[in-house]
């Protein structure tokens, strides 16, 4: 085995095909971080000229003149192969020290345990081997975090897209399905955005971050991400088509008025019980609501044909898309832009 400095293209190819490969272990991510003061290092282990382990390391100089090293969602290695892990670690220590490093931080892209959407344990078996092997090599395990103490999230929620949208929707919570339908009726649509859309709707990210106490990335940072990741990143904009919103409310009002007429007709022909009285009360309430929505839609139409109410930035990482940043306009939260 041989520890070596890797060329950009060979590292990227290795990362792309490694089972732990992810968007943070790419030359695109390195290029982005380089613009913000980090220096990228591509290192690995070769056996008979074949790369068998690798990592993107990022270093940054501290005020005392020394460097900190960080491998975001690295290392890319078989953590069950203790001999390989030991060899790579020993050489990483030498490399970091040679480059005036004071420590190396890693947060491997490995699954420890799988849970259901409600947090229930699906499989009681835990993936302890990587942690145990790293501890044997004197890595300091900082423990299982419970909130946002770490640079990268401990918890990742995944939705398998192995079914049609209609099939997936059936598995959503009833309240989620209801909110989706409600958003459609209110003229909410989603489109893939451009740099111009990002510039216009960025304030939604900024305001959401401040409101919820998240760390905000700057507009220039997000634009640089789009520039470097190109086809592997998407900006989605949720917006209200005010004309559709108005037309949908007109249609809903007509239907509810017709429903009320039918109820009144039944009340003339039948013995009026609690059921009919409740139906009449509900229909009258809905008519009042739709009239209010119509007035709101009219004002919004005068303001603009479309109104941005949500933004999401998603990056492709091998066979999955990860939602990185999102924000909504709190003034339109009843439109369910999420």
Features:
single chain; 338 residues; alpha+beta; Aminopeptidase; 5-stranded mixed beta sheet; 4-stranded antiparallel beta sheet; 9 strands
Topology:
Blueprint: E1 2-5, H1 8-17, H2 27-34, E2 39-47, E3 50-61, E4 67-71, H3 82-98, E5 101-106, H4 129-136, H5 165-171, H6 174-185, E6 188-192, H7 195-212, H8 219-229, E7 233-241, H9 242-269, H10 274-303, E8 306-317, E9 320-328
What does this structure look like?
The protein is an alpha+beta fold and 338 residues long. It has 2 domains: 2-136, 3-Layer(aba) Sandwich (Aminopeptidase); 163-338, Aminopeptidase. Helix content is 44%, strand content 21%. The chain contains 10 helices and 9 strands. The chain has helices at 8-17, 27-34, 82-98, 129-136, 165-171, 174-185, 195-212, 219-229, 242-269, 274-303, and strands spanning 2-5, 39-47, 50-61, 67-71, 101-106, 188-192, 233-241, 306-317, 320-328. It has a 5-stranded mixed β-sheet with strand order 1-2-3-4-5, sandwiched between helices. The protein has a 4-stranded antiparallel β-sheet with strand order 6-7-8-9. A hairpin with a 2-residue loop joins β2 and β3. α2 packs antiparallel against α8, α7 (195-212) packs across α8 (219-229) and α9 (242-269) runs antiparallel to α10 (274-303). The longest helix is centred in the C-terminal third of the chain and has 30 residues, at 274-303. It is elongated, with a radius of gyration of 27 Å. The model has no long low-confidence stretch (mean pLDDT 92).
